[in-house]
Design a protein that fits this description.
The chain is mainly alpha-helical. The chain has helices at about 5-30, 35-45, 55-60, 65-75, 100-120, 125-150, and strands at about 50, 80-85, 95. The longest helix is centred in the N-terminal third of the chain and has 28 residues, at about 5-30.
Length: about 160
């Protein structure tokens, strides 16, 4: 019988291939809209509302400059725009345009359709448990990484 730690390690071993296969599975839907996986992540963060580029960067654990380039590319595609930030004169807010909301909605709906096939075969309690376990692993490994390192992760502020 595996220990709890061995079981969690087994979950972690599946995360990388899950990430790689999920990226491949959605690549076609992204390509038809000229959206990369990193840009998709930025668009998804902005579905919750306007944010500054540094806020998006911190939430994605990416350098601010990388997110700025992704945002600029999304502006060129008409998927987002920068607006005045009433809380900060120099740091504008990035927000999705109607076209950006539509494109992300199409991408997300396609993903949900694909996931629906599997969801129909799984117990909803198992799905909820998986979310809890992955969330706990993410929080724990983040803390371990921060304790082991000498500062915040790239793009993240303490």
């Amino acid at each position: 019988m595996k220990s709890g730690a061995e079981g969690l390690y087994e979950v972690l071993r599946h995360v990388r291939p899950l990430h790689q296969w999920s990226a491949k599975a959605v690549a076609d839907a992204l390509a038809e809209h000229d959206v990369s996986m990193p840009m998709r992540a930025v668009l998804e963060r902005l579905m919750d509302g306007a944010q500054t580029v540094p806020q998006v960067a911190r939430s994605l654990w990416l350098p601010r400059q990388v997110v700025q380039r992704l945002a600029d590319a999304a502006v060129a595609l008409g998927y987002l725009r920068f607006v005045v930030n009433p809380a900060h004169r120099r740091s504008r807010l990035a927000e999705l345009t109607p076209a950006g909301r539509r494109v992300f909605g199409e991408i997300h709906d396609r993903e949900l359709g694909e996931l629906g096939e599997l969801a129909d075969r799984l117990d909803p309690r198992d799905i909820a448990a998986a979310v809890r376990v992955i969330s706990a692993l993410t929080a724990h490994t983040r803390e371990v990484a921060l304790r082991a390192g000498d500062g915040p992760l790239s793009g993240e502020e303490m």
